[in-house]
Amino acid sequence: MAEFAALYPKVEIETSIANTEEVIQAVRANHLDIALVEGEVNYSDIAIRPIMEDELILVVPNQHPLARLPIVTSEHLQDQVWILRESGSGTRAFSDKLIKERGINVKKTYIFGSGQAVKQAVTAGLGIALVSRWIVRKELNAKELKSIRIKGKRLTRSFYLIGPKNHESSEAMEVFTEQLVTLESTSWRKLSSLQSRTL
Question: How far apart are CA 35 and CA 41, in angstroms?
Answer without folding.
Answer: 12
